[in-house]
Amino acid sequence: MKKECVTMLLAGGAGKRLGLLTRNLAKPAVPFGGRYRIIDFALSNCLNSHMYTVGVLTQYSPLKLHQHIGVGKPWDLDRMEDGLTILSPYTETSGGNWYLGTADSITKNINFIEQYDPNYLIVLSGDHIYHMDYNELLNQHKEKQADVTISALEVPWKETSRFGILNTTDDLRIYEFEEKPTSAKNNLASMGIYIFNWDILKQYLEADSTNESSNHDFGQDILPAMILDHRKLYAYKFEGYWKDVGTIESYWEAHMDLLRENLHLSLNNRNWRTYSHDSNFAPQLIGENAVIHHSLINNGCIISGNIDHSVLFENVHIGDGSVIIKSILLPGARVGDNVLLERVIVQENVTIPNNTRIVAHPDEDPVVLSNDNIAYVSLGEED
């Protein structure tokens, strides 16, 4: 059972800033990219990186997420001796108990990790969109003889207050970690992807678990404690596309990014595939009067209207004379005749009545339509 490296994938986020999209759904389970869910990207990275021992830590509204993950078959993680294991919150003494923070979620699963006696532990977030070979991160970790390696990338200065910021020396050794600073010293942001030497991390987790004043969080507690103790923390500079789809605007932007021809993240990359379940819908049907421009159209779609710079998930129907512009339609959406949607996100299985007109202004968040608000928005929204 000895494994060099164990991966822990944090997938319990509520994603409250995504509003209606996560009202009854964990953020990692939110549909993305026409046929995927957000967590598919991290799981596919694990497969492509040959990281086959994966614990998925779930918490908030996990039903659909658990159904989607199953035993990990789409990512070749349905294995006998390692593979994928779903780890729901519990304690041996009191049964069910919420994870109190990112570090606490690992602490409560020390027994799961210890059975593999790993040298290294990778901690990932299950709610980011990116492609990464985790072996490159691990190789740098070994070369630097680091205790901790944190994957990082440069973000726009105006967004530094949203991230943990790494202050480093020229050789990327981290001497300070600032969690969401109001005035950052640089713009090198943590991606929430860590590699730890397991024997060292275990010591800090056990000490943190008895600290009643701790938030039990990596960014707020564990990493600052390691820096204070002069442990060897290094940054790994990631070059590529990465998106934290934490808001309605960023979720919409990430879909529009997929339509850019020069985007580094490509869903058609044969050397680094993104895997998910195949629902086996019939091929798309494009009507004789339909016009489609620079859009992603998935299986099961029946299109009789005009689609421009939009992403249509599986089994979406668009009626005659309807125009869909810069919008995202999730699985099973139904759009009637003579409808205009621009900068709109239509949730799963929502029906848009005939002659509806909904246009979100460019300086406003895209409009999210659910079965609960469609009648109100259809009557009250104007461009």
TrEMBL record:
Main EC class the enzyme belongs to: transferase
Residues involved in alpha-D-glucose 1-phosphate binding: Y99, G164, E179, K180, S190
GO molecular-function terms, A-Z: ATP binding; glucose-1-phosphate adenylyltransferase activity
Site entry (Could play a key role in the communication between the regulatory and the substrate sites), positions: Q59, W98
Cited SUPFAM superfamilies: Nucleotide-diphospho-sugar transferases, Trimeric LpxA-like enzymes
Purpose: Involved in the biosynthesis of ADP-glucose, a building block required for the elongation reactions to produce glycogen. Catalyzes the reaction between ATP and alpha-D-glucose 1-phosphate (G1P) to produce pyrophosphate and ADP-Glc.
Name of the protein described by the UniProt record: Glucose-1-phosphate adenylyltransferase
Native source organism of the sequence: Saliterribacillus persicus
Lineage: Bacteria, Bacillati, Bacillota, Bacilli, Bacillales
Name of encoding gene: glgC
